[in-house]
Design a protein that fits this description.
By secondary structure, this protein is an all-alpha fold. The chain is built from 9 helices and no strands.
Length: 171
Amino acid sequence: MLIDYGLPKAAENLFHDVAQRNKQDAGAQEGWGDAEFANGEYAAARDAYRNSLALDPANTAIAKRADLCERILALEPDLRGLGAAPRDERSLKILAGVMDELSRCGGGGDKAAFQQAQAALARKKRPSSYSDAADSNRSLALQLWAARSPSCVAAGGDDALSRVMSQLAPK
């Protein structure tokens, strides 16, 4: 209920305390994971979900949530300690994901940005600056994401990509 009422930090504290008192409580681990997930703390959520899975390996819903956390973390371009080359690789994965989303729902958006994105994805040579390339890819992805057609937005799509894009979008 705390998460539903917009208090995921309070839920995180509550479930953390319960999970620490009873390390064999799969439900507490799951709740802790849900609270961390609601806070956008995907690494901590993944770990809590894994702890819950270790106690309840048949819980496919938790396995799916742990997998979603893994997919988000694999895309996250602003992950602490990430170097310029891996940041560029992730920006290309994000750009490719956005292009896939656009293709899936009939395109839309800025044709020039679409062509730039295709060129960036087709690039074979190492960029002169990984940081500049990553920034450019990120900007293109955000531009294309924002220009999606309403039917594309309504259709949903890749939840991991959607969460990463919402984190990258300027507030």
